[in-house]
Amino acid sequence: MPATYSSLLPLAAMEEPGVRQRKKIVPGSSDGHQTGSGAKPTRAFPKIYGLLLVVMLVLTLYQFPALVKSPLNQLLGTPEPTRLLPGIPTNYVPTFAADEAKRDAVVEAFKHAWHAYERDAMGDDEYHPISHTGSNLTNAGGIGYTVADSIDTMIIMGLEDEYQRARTWVADNLSFDRDGNFNTFEITIRIMGGLLTAYHLSGEDSLFLEKARELADRILPTFETESGLPLSLVNLALREGVPDRDNYGYVSTAEVATLQLEFRYLAYLTDEDIYWDKVENVMAILKAVAQPHGLATIFVDPKLGRYQTSPIRLGSRGDSYYEYLLKQYLQTNQTELVYRDMYDTAMSGIHDVLVKRGLSTKLLYIAELNPERTGQGSIGWRLVPKQDHLVCFLGGSLMLGATTSGALVDHVSIPPRPDELTGQGERDWLTGVELINTCMATHDTQTGLAPEIAHFRIESDGIDNSVAPADWYIKGARLGAPAPFDARYILRPETIESLFLAFRLTGDPKYRDYGWAIFQAIEKHCRIPTGGYASVINVDQVPVEHEDKMETFLLSETLKYLYLLFADSSVLPLNEYVFNTEAHPLPVFNPTILTGFS
Ligand code: DMJ
């Protein structure tokens, strides 16, 4: 059994998370975010405080001159400086009109996938396009995994007929009364997230909210653990949390910390605090046991409420922990500063420890840390130069974070100017741009598709340059040998997600070009002529071999982000929506309760 995380890094003493008495915000109350004009101070304001305030103001303006620069320039008619961030071409014209031909080609692809599923497997959880069959996650029957994950894409793409048929299926057939063990995280992000967005985008069709709420109520018992961290699995019929025996009962950090957008939006819609409190408590616990560098190991112990010794990575089991730090801050209109602090700390930790460069062309990548026992019985950390495809979400996320958490002004320009960003914002922006370039470089394969995992060359790897390329390679790939697991492309969306964000934040057409190239590679190598799309077993082998599976995130994420990349930028604007980790857009709202921890 692995040692505890606390045995390896000096943890802050395990104390009760700083949970404060929860207060509803009453408009006009002096402790809410929306203080009304009628709020009166209750005691005199000593002069010394006034003096301190002036000194602080002067110091702040000295440090962040951009706070006054723009208004001053406007007043004096001084032209704004036009300095651009490095990496942004000086000659591009921001254009946000739709590229209709490409956008419509993506809609056609969605129909090709959905119609095949509808024909062969309607209502089944997953689809196998080569055998033309469907399958369910458990033997207890389907829970609408594919349907719920796809509905909002139909609404966004304007596919009225498909939407009506899917809605009818939800109304007549969707049941969560299934006596099987389902993954808490997956059904939250795919099904609950899908239903909540369908509710919002359908003009508040109550069918979707009722179903989302029913699912949430069946999931709630997973939070009844000693710590309050939810269990990995849930029996939906019995309404019972089930520990994951495969991982000693530990839970992935990403899984416990990627339920928050969905449960918080449900709490907002229903005015039921329980949904909010359960997921916020998870964040309070994780903050209380966090390391100063803000990096999280990929497993937590739901009994003890602390991190377990396990790898630190931005790939599987770690990724969306970081994604949701930023997105929780954005979801509630940038009012919950504790999430911004956690996000900023984590991004600095990533830069200090995990950001590395390849040997030859110095491609920037995000490495992993693996714990290892040393001779003396203590534990050390080994840097592993490996990057999951999943990490490619981080490029766009860093750019989005730079323009929000890292912004000095309310609305940054498109693209942002350096004087609109904090030092951290500028650093994150540049890393985001570079990481997207690296993710694009990993598409330099025979198929033009990126592998599941890329390894980067380091001095000490002892690999002969004639055997592996100078920058990155697919580990275990050898001529004539069976393709390693790392060589697959399973229709993942992360690079495309980043391209969509980068395009919206810069207007640089190269991001559309990149997206179009990936889309064409998917069309060429993953499209099954009889309908549907399938995963590819080896991105470096043409003609390809397929795996008989179409992941639901092709419909919810990959094709949705491609559509949005080519749609005009008024569709789902980034300042009004926050996308859950499965690409279900949820509206930004002003919270009606105060954050319960700090
Ligand atoms: C999706 O289910 C989600 O994006 C999740 O956060 C991670 N991976 C898949 C897609 O790759």
TrEMBL record:
**Broad enzyme group:** hydrolase
For this UniProt record, the keywords arranged alphabetically read as follows: Calcium, Disulfide bond, Glycosidase, Hydrolase, Membrane, Metal-binding, Transmembrane, Transmembrane helix
- Extract one GO BP annotation from the record: ERAD pathway
Gene Ontology MF terms: calcium ion binding; mannosyl-oligosaccharide 1,2-alpha-mannosidase activity
Does the UniProt entry include the keyword Cytoplasm? Answer: no
Q: Which InterPro entries match?
A: 6hp_glycosidase-like_sf (IPR012341), Glyco_hydro_47 (IPR001382), Glycosyl_Hydrolase_47 (IPR050749), Seven-hairpin_glycosidases (IPR036026)
Query: Region (Disordered) spans which residues?
Result: 20-39
Q: Where is the active site?
A: 186, 319, 452, 494
**Where are the membrane-spanning stretches?**
48-68
Presence of the UniProt keyword Transferase in the record: no
Q: What is its EC number?
A: 3.2.1.-
Q: Which domain of life is it from?
A: Eukaryota
Report which reactions are catalysed by this protein: N(4)-(alpha-D-Man-(1->2)-alpha-D-Man-(1->2)-alpha-D-Man-(1->3)-[alpha-D-Man-(1->3)-[alpha-D-Man-(1->2)-alpha-D-Man-(1->6)]-alpha-D-Man-(1->6)]-beta-D-Man-(1->4)-beta-D-GlcNAc-(1->4)-beta-D-GlcNAc)-L-asparaginyl-[protein] (N-glucan mannose isomer 8A1,2,3B1,3) + 3 H2O = N(4)-(alpha-D-Man-(1->3)-[alpha-D-Man-(1->3)-[alpha-D-Man-(1->6)]-alpha-D-Man-(1->6)]-beta-D-Man-(1->4)-beta-D-GlcNAc-(1->4)-beta-D-GlcNAc)-L-asparaginyl-[protein] (N-glucan mannose isomer 5A1,2) + 3 beta-D-mannose; N(4)-(alpha-D-Man-(1->2)-alpha-D-Man-(1->2)-alpha-D-Man-(1->3)-[alpha-D-Man-(1->2)-alpha-D-Man-(1->3)-[alpha-D-Man-(1->2)-alpha-D-Man-(1->6)]-alpha-D-Man-(1->6)]-beta-D-Man-(1->4)-beta-D-GlcNAc-(1->4)-beta-D-GlcNAc)-L-asparaginyl-[protein] (N-glucan mannose isomer 9A1,2,3B1,2,3) + 4 H2O = N(4)-(alpha-D-Man-(1->3)-[alpha-D-Man-(1->3)-[alpha-D-Man-(1->6)]-alpha-D-Man-(1->6)]-beta-D-Man-(1->4)-beta-D-GlcNAc-(1->4)-beta-D-GlcNAc)-L-asparaginyl-[protein] (N-glucan mannose isomer 5A1,2) + 4 beta-D-mannose
The family database entries (SUPFAM superfamilies) matched by this protein are listed as: Seven-hairpin glycosidases (SSF48225)
What is one GO cellular-component annotation here? endoplasmic reticulum
Q: Which residues bind Ca(2+)?
A: 581
Pathway membership, UniProt? Protein modification; protein glycosylation
User: Which cofactors is this protein said to need?
Assistant: Ca(2+)
Q: Which family does it belong to?
A: Belongs to the glycosyl hydrolase 47 family.
- The protein's name: alpha-1,2-Mannosidase
Give the source species.
Rhizopogon vesiculosus
